[in-house]
Amino acid sequence: MTTAHNENHMTDFFSAQEFPRRVNTLEILQQAEQHRAQELARLGAAFGRFVRRTVISPIVVAYQRQRMYEELSQLSDRVLEDIGVSRGNIAQVVADSFPGQAEQKAETANTTLHSLVAKRRAQAAQTVSNDQTHRPLAA
Question: Which member of 5, 92, 129, 133 has the lowest number of beta carbons within 10 Å of its beta carbon?
Fold first, then answer.
């Protein structure tokens, strides 16, 4: 087979296919732009949901929990008793008030409470050691 024969064969093959003679490039570009805009809108909405779920919502919940903890901590023991809460379980009450992540919240609240107690004990120990001279303990 010669090259000319191959070219004729290919020409016959493509001419036998039905190709649109006119391609409306403007219509194709408009459709592409429409698909692009739809995809960008979809991605923007997904990003917004992601930011709301992973950044904004946890910050709002943490703020609400902190405020509730502070408010309950400032109440007197008598008022706490009237509402059925003891000072020792404020962290648990706060954690139970925010369903959905109660275990994580309780753990965080307890960790915060324990760190505050440890910090106050350390401050108290520092004050005691500064006030007294170092004397051996009597047996």
Answer: 133
Report the alpha-carbon distance of residue 68 to residue 97 in Å, rounded: 9
Handedness of CA 79, 63, 66, 85 (dihedral sign): positive
Confidence at 116, pLDDT banded by 50, 70, 90 = low
In whole angstroms, what is the distance from residue 57 CA to residue 88 CA? 28
pTM over 0.85: no
Q: What is the pLDDT of residue 99?
A: 77
Triad 97, 102, 53: Cα angle to 5°: 95
Which 3-state string (H, E, C) describes 42-63? HHHHHHHHHHHHHHHHHHHHHH
Question: Tens digit of pLDDT for each residue in 55-67?
Answer: 999 999 999 999 9
Rounded to whole angstroms, how far apart are CA atoms 68 and 81?
Answer: 17
